[in-house]
Write a structure and sequence with these properties.
By secondary structure, the protein is mainly α. Helix content is about 70%, strand content about 5%. A hairpin with a 2-residue loop joins strand 2 and strand 3. Helix 7 runs parallel beside helix 9, helix 10 crosses helix 13 and helix 16 packs across helix 17.
Length: about 425
């Protein structure tokens, strides 16, 4: 029986345990934080049961992907890049809007964010380029050029609708180039160019955008004044049509909170205010699973701000435990990558682990007020649909790489044993 189970759940056991703990925490916290969905849908169990169903689909995806030899992932690179670019273009034209951002497209009734596919495709392409250009002294000069070309095409399309995802992906690709031994001469150029782009983009946002916190009625998404301004916008303004949202978030982050509760406006800054209340009311040890109060007031408590609910219910120790799971995932993947004989699976697994861990850090920073609100969910914990399934596939790829690396270790160990025996004889 144990052998049959082992044949199904193949790969590194530590990675499996991290996934199991994150999934259990996800089910408990989504069940607790979905009071808003329960009220709207009129069903107490529907939100969490749907989430459990998504996790089960993700589990099937992990099992399937973990059985796929790593060499087949390389074959999918061009196809996934093509699908990513086409879908990113489609979402800019016919995408469905959520909170002022066109991030979703629907195919056969299934909604998904093209940026989720694009993230994995970009990591896959970068891993392939780095592995194909490796020399004894590191990646050759062509690697930097090819990665930048692909990055401009993919990350550039993500930028205008999802700035935080574009920044996250750019950082992960930069880290992959560092791991892939791209010359620091080029990395310094890239870092300088990135800083320049950020400064120019922020300047454009501050000049073009409108501070939405100064709008008389913040509960109305587009007031008559803003609608009139939108009609008068030129080409540049239409490109930066989310500039007002970005400007408001930047101003709120820079101004911060001076600690006086009477200065908090629960209408204009509800998410951050209720997240702070959730954290402050945890009293270190937490209120216990299912006992959150702020879930009823905090928008996206089950998604973007689920870490604040985790702190409120599980306390500081629960928050540290969740953060440790992502750290373990990253360092365990590094251990797996070091055992790989070939470069491609090592770069691919490290890139996907960096992607998951970096997104988790960004979500946590937002929840505790260290970064502006970005809309990044907590991987494998937040309630989601296709994004959760795709994150599960990332775990499956890492497990596939771990299987190959483990088998090669055994072969190498066997060869050393044979050699030692021959020497003795």
């Amino acid at each position: 029986m144990s052998k049959k189970v082992g044949n199904i759940f193949k790969g590194d056991k530590v990675i499996w345990m991290v996934f199991l703990f994150l999934s259990l925490i996800s089910v408990v916290e989504v069940f607790s934080a979905s009071s808003e969905l329960t009220y709207k849908g009129g069903s107490y169990w529907a939100p969490v049961m749907k989430h459990v169903g998504v996790l089960l689909v993700g589990l099937v995806g992990i099992i399937f992907t973990s059985h796929v030899p790593c060499k087949y992932f390389r074959i999918l690179t061009l196809l996934l890049l093509f699908v990513s670019i086409v879908s990113l273009l489609a979402v800019l034209i016919v995408g469905q809007s959520t909170n002022g951002a066109q991030r979703w497209i629907s195919i056969l009734g299934i909604q998904f964010q093209p940026s989720e596919i694009a993230k994995g495709s970009m990591v896959l392409a970068t891993a392939q380029i780095l592995s194909a250009t490796q020399t004894d002294k590191g990646a050759d000069d062509h690697a930097f050029k090819y990665i930048c070309i692909v990055g401009i095409a993919v990350i550039g399309l993500i930028f205008f609708e999802n700035l935080s995802t574009a920044a996250l992906l750019a950082f992960v690709i930069f880290m992959m180039m560092d791991v892939g031994r791209v010359s620091w001469k080029y990395l310094r150029i890239l870092a300088g160019g990135g800083i320049t782009v950020v400064v120019v983009a922020l300047s454009a946002v501050m000049l073009i955008g409108t501070d939405e916190s100064q709008v008389p009625n913040p509960n109305t998404q587009l007031t008559e004044v803003m609608q009139k301004e939108d009609e008068d916008k030129g080409v540049v303004e239409k490109v930066f049509h989310r500039a007002s949202t970005w400007k408001t978030r930047i101003i709120k982050q820079v101004e911060g909170f001076n600690g006086d509760p009477k200065d908090v406006d629960l209408d204009k800054d509800a998410q951050r205010a209720h997240a702070n209340i959730a954290i402050a009311s945890s009293n270190i040890i937490g209120k216990g699973p299912g006992n959150s109060v702020e879930r009823d007031f905090l928008s996206q408590a089950f998604s973007d701000f689920i870490y604040a609910i985790i702190i409120e219910e599980m306390g500081i120790f629960g928050a540290i435990f969740v953060a440790l799971l992502y750290i373990i995932l990253l360092f365990r993947t590094r251990y797996i990558a070091n055992r790989c004989e070939n470069c491609f699976p090592a770069f691919l697994s490290m890139g996907l682990a960096l992607l998951l861990a970096t997104q988790a850090v960004m979500n946590m920073w937002v929840a505790v007020g260290l970064a502006p609100v970005t809309g990044q969910p907590l991987p494998l914990v937040s309630k989601g649909g296709t994004s959760t399934i795709i994150n599960c596939l990332y775990i499956g790829v890492i497990l596939s790489v771990s299987r190959t690396a483990k088998r090669r270790d055994r072969v190498a160990s066997g060869a050393q044993t044979v050699a030692s025996t021959a020497d003795v004889r």
